[in-house]
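Slide 14.
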Amino acid sequence: MKIVQIILFTAAVTFVHSRSRGKDYEKEKICQQYSMLGREKFKASGIVIYSQKFSTSTFEQVNAVLDAMVNLADKCCAEGADPNCYDDGATAMSEVSCMEDSPFPKHPGITKCCEEQSLERKLCLANLRVLSEEFPSLEEPTDDEVCKQFTADPKGYMERYLYELARRHGSVPAGLVLNATDNYSRMVASCCSSSQSKVCFLKERLQQKDSKLFLRLASHLCHNQVHFKSLSTGLAVRFGQMIPSASFEEVLPVADYLQQGLAKCCFNPNPECLIKEFIGLKTVLCTNSTLLAKYDKLEKCCTKPCLDVLPCVDSLDAQPPTQLAEIQEPDNEDLCKDASSVTIKKYFFEIGKRHHYLPIPILATVFGGFNKMVNSCCSAEDSNTCLNAKKPLMKKEIGTFISKANEICENYRKLDFTVYKERTLTHFQEKLPGATKDEINKKVEHQTEFASTCCFPKGPPLRCQKLVNTIGHTCEGDTCLLI
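Slide 15: predicted structure.
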């Protein structure tokens, strides 16, 4: 898989350095990148950065701030420019950001930043970031429509495509998005001028299939790294569901390696960092691990080139667990030790691998609720009494939650969509005989949305955490430990 290395700029990095090195360093860095990349690539890099940082902003808002930045570089990086040109221009841009009717991207934190002055204000504005939204996949128009739009305005079409792609992949290295867009741009330019454009598009899309899958996988993993508090636990569970005979001690080194690589590299704009970690995974998983001997499909993945190992592993299905011993409940002393995170991770791992129909976005509710209970009790004056009282209640709620969620996901994955919806309708009609037709239909729609969105390993974590309430209360009272 060919990955193009692209040198990027980020305002945040530049401004952070300028705190200690001064405004001349800030200008020097921007001008160096402007000169190295050229005007068009400089703007394209900026579109990616700002579309990722402000994914809820419009294209017009992102374009406005980049036009201002490019104009600033045009003017102030020229030979013989006024020494104060860049600093004055950057200050003027920060003032525009603080205007009530600013054409630049919006953020709730802008008001607070605008109370600062000079460099502190610019630093504050540069460090703003909206938590990446979970947008639906980018749907391209037909080949004919692509060529029509591209031919009418090649630059405008590609800038908008770059914006749409970047905001959908807000947690990955910006260079991966630029690489994908460069590939797409070459395809469109070539195929729209070809006498056999449909054949050309088909051939090019097949060639780009692997790199697109790589971007989606990197985006999924980095998005989870941002939104799951303990991704290494989730990754350990994923391997446990894939290889139920594996022990916690066998999967943890692989899960920890991958999570630590994501934490280090996802927000590094240059993709080399993440690619290096993915390449290193082959050694950790295929050479230093005992997992291969327990799953022949995993062994086949390890015969592939380094960058293809992780996509291959990710494509493997969870396996129904064989006979497993009863889960050992963690004792109070272990839960409240400094190293309790390992105890809790192991407990979650054992729960997760016994329920292969439940992906991490759903099990995250169990992880979060149990962790909250442990933290609350372990900081109480009498932690032992607190845990003795709450652990049995939590165990019962976890059982209720998993039973309900497992039934929903197992049925959804086994049945045709139409059949699933019909059975869900019948279920609610029998369960709620006094409910109106509208009330029943609403429950059917909510449960179907939950199942179709969250019963898969790549379910969007933020959305699934909102939809999980569809499962209903996990206790008989009004105040439950889970939901």
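Speaker note: The chain is about 70% helix and 0% strand.
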